[in-house]
Amino acid sequence: MSDFNLQALLKDTLVWIESLGSIGAIAFIGIYIISTVAFLPAFILTLGAGVLFGVWLGSIYVFIGATLGSILAFLVGRYFARDWVAKKIADNDKFRAIDRAVGKEGLKIVLLTRLSPAFPFNLLNYAFGVTGVSVQDYVIGSIGMIPGTVMFVYIGSLAGNLALIGTDAQPTNPTLQWTIRIVGLIATVAVTVYVTRLAKQALADSVN
Question: In this structure, what DSSP letter does residue 173 have?
Answer without folding.
Answer: -
